[in-house]
Amino acid sequence: MSGVGSESSKPLSERRASRPIRLGKLAVGGDAPVSVQSMATTDTRDRQATIDQCRMLQAAGCDAVRVAVPDDDAADNLGAIAKAVTIPVIADIHFNYHLALRAIEAGVAGVRVNPGNIGGQKRVREVARAAKERGIPIRIGVNGGSLEKELLERYGYPAPEAMVESAVRHIRMLEDEDFFDIKVSLKASDVPTMVRAYRLAAKTFDYALHLGVTEAGTLLQGSVKSAVGIGMLLAEGIGDTIRVSLTADPVEEVKVGIHLLKSLGLRDGGMTLVSCPTCGRCSVDMITATQRIEKALENVSEEVHVAVMGCEVNGPGEAREADVGIAYGHNNVGLLFKKGKVVRRFAADELEEALVAEVRSIVEERSGKLPIVNQ
Ligand code: SF4
C-alpha cells in the first residue's frame, strides 16, 4: 500500500478573497485575521452602563462592539462611548437615516443600516457621502426574518436566494452613490439556510462577510448552532468577521467566538485546555477540578496548551501535545507532565496549584512579563 501523504500542513480551504475595509484600527476582509464582534445589551441611552459593558467586552477579547441606536438620546451618547474604549464601536440603526448621520458625525467606526429601509435614494446619498467623508464602512444586515414582502411572496419563504437578492439590492443603492466600503451579513436562525445564503453571497459579490446565526438561542444551543454554521463557512474559507448571537451575557458571545476561531486555527493566544471526559479509571472529581483550573487560567494572554487528565496510565500519553498538564492517579497522588513526559509526582490536592504555577512560569518565559492569573 502506498503512503497516505500529508494533510496536516494544508489549510482547510483557501480563504475567499474579499474586499478589505477598516473599522477604525481594525482591518476586516482581505487577508486580515477573522475578528470577533459582539453587541452591547445595555440601553445605549444609559451611557455609563454601555461604556462599562463595552469595556468588559474589550477585556474579554472582543474586536469590535455594536450598540443599538433607537433614538436621539442614544445617539447623543455615541461619541462618549466610542472614546471610552479602544475597540471600534459600530452603530446599529434601523430605518432612520437621520440617526445614521448623527452616528457618523459622533465618530463611530462603522454603521449597520440597510439602505433600502431609510426612505429613498436621496437619503442613501446623504448617508453614503457622510460615511465616505469619514472613511466609515456600512454593514448591510439581511435577516431571514425580515425580508422584503415582495421577495417573500416570490420565493415563498426566506430562501437563501431571496436573502442574497435582498443584499444585492441594498448593495446597488450604495454602489450607485460610488460607495464600496461595504460589509454584508445574511443571518438566519436556521443553520442550513444561513450556510447556503453565505455560500451564494460569496459567489455573487466580493464584499467582506460578517457571519452569524441570528436568534441562535441560549448559551448551549446558541453556541452549538453558531459553531456549526459559522464553523462550516470558515472551514470553507468564507467569512471575515463573526458574531455569535446568544441570549446570554455578551461576554459569553466573545468567549465562544474566540474558541470557535481557535478551534479552526484562526486565532492564537490564551489558554487552550485539553481535558479528558473522565471514565471509571478516574478517582477524583475531574469536572469540578477542571472548571477551577479553567477559571484560574482564563485570563492568560500567551498561547499555552494545558491538559487536565483523569488517570496516570493514559493521561500524559493522550495529552502529548500539551505544553503542561496534570494526570490524577490512585492513592491520592498525581503527575505533572510536560509534552507528555512526566516531570514530577505530587499529592493530588497539590496538583492544581502546581499546574497553575507551571503555567505562570511558562507564560512568564514566553512573554517576558508576569501573566494575569485569577486567584
Ligand atoms: S485519561 Fe484516563 S480517566 Fe481520562 S478518559 Fe482517558 S482513560 Fe479515562
UniProtKB/TrEMBL annotation:
<dbReference type="InterPro" id="IPR045854">
    <property type="entry name" value="NO2/SO3_Rdtase_4Fe4S_sf"/>
</dbReference>
<dbReference type="GO" id="GO:0046429">
    <property type="term" value="F:4-hydroxy-3-methylbut-2-en-1-yl diphosphate synthase activity (ferredoxin)"/>
</dbReference>
<keyword id="KW-0411">Iron-sulfur</keyword>
<keyword id="KW-0408">Iron</keyword>
<keyword id="KW-0479">Metal-binding</keyword>
<feature type="binding site">
    <location>
        <position position="318"/>
    </location>
    <ligand>
        <name>[4Fe-4S] cluster</name>
    </ligand>
</feature>
<comment type="similarity">
    <text>Belongs to the IspG family.</text>
</comment>
<protein>
    <recommendedName>
        <fullName>4-hydroxy-3-methylbut-2-en-1-yl diphosphate synthase (flavodoxin)</fullName>
        <ecNumber>1.17.7.3</ecNumber>
    </recommendedName>
</protein>
<keyword id="KW-0560">Oxidoreductase</keyword>
<feature type="binding site">
    <location>
        <position position="279"/>
    </location>
    <ligand>
        <name>[4Fe-4S] cluster</name>
    </ligand>
</feature>
<dbReference type="InterPro" id="IPR011005">
    <property type="entry name" value="Dihydropteroate_synth-like_sf"/>
</dbReference>
<dbReference type="GO" id="GO:0141197">
    <property type="term" value="F:4-hydroxy-3-methylbut-2-enyl-diphosphate synthase activity (flavodoxin)"/>
</dbReference>
<keyword id="KW-0004">4Fe-4S</keyword>
<dbReference type="InterPro" id="IPR058579">
    <property type="entry name" value="IspG_C"/>
</dbReference>
<dbReference type="InterPro" id="IPR016425">
    <property type="entry name" value="IspG_bac"/>
</dbReference>
<feature type="binding site">
    <location>
        <position position="311"/>
    </location>
    <ligand>
        <name>[4Fe-4S] cluster</name>
    </ligand>
</feature>
<comment type="function">
    <text>Converts 2C-methyl-D-erythritol 2,4-cyclodiphosphate (ME-2,4cPP) into 1-hydroxy-2-methyl-2-(E)-butenyl 4-diphosphate.</text>
</comment>
<dbReference type="Pfam" id="PF26540">
    <property type="entry name" value="GcpE_C"/>
</dbReference>
<feature type="domain" description="IspG C-terminal">
    <location>
        <begin position="273"/>
        <end position="360"/>
    </location>
</feature>
<keyword id="KW-0414">Isoprene biosynthesis</keyword>
<feature type="binding site">
    <location>
        <position position="276"/>
    </location>
    <ligand>
        <name>[4Fe-4S] cluster</name>
    </ligand>
</feature>
<dbReference type="InterPro" id="IPR058578">
    <property type="entry name" value="IspG_TIM"/>
</dbReference>
<dbReference type="InterPro" id="IPR004588">
    <property type="entry name" value="IspG_bac-typ"/>
</dbReference>
<dbReference type="GO" id="GO:0016114">
    <property type="term" value="P:terpenoid biosynthetic process"/>
</dbReference>
<dbReference type="Pfam" id="PF04551">
    <property type="entry name" value="GcpE"/>
</dbReference>
<dbReference type="GO" id="GO:0019288">
    <property type="term" value="P:isopentenyl diphosphate biosynthetic process, methylerythritol 4-phosphate pathway"/>
</dbReference>
<dbReference type="GO" id="GO:0051539">
    <property type="term" value="F:4 iron, 4 sulfur cluster binding"/>
</dbReference>
<comment type="pathway">
    <text>Isoprenoid biosynthesis; isopentenyl diphosphate biosynthesis via DXP pathway; isopentenyl diphosphate from 1-deoxy-D-xylulose 5-phosphate: step 5/6.</text>
</comment>
<dbReference type="GO" id="GO:0005506">
    <property type="term" value="F:iron ion binding"/>
</dbReference>
<feature type="domain" description="IspG TIM-barrel">
    <location>
        <begin position="19"/>
        <end position="257"/>
    </location>
</feature>
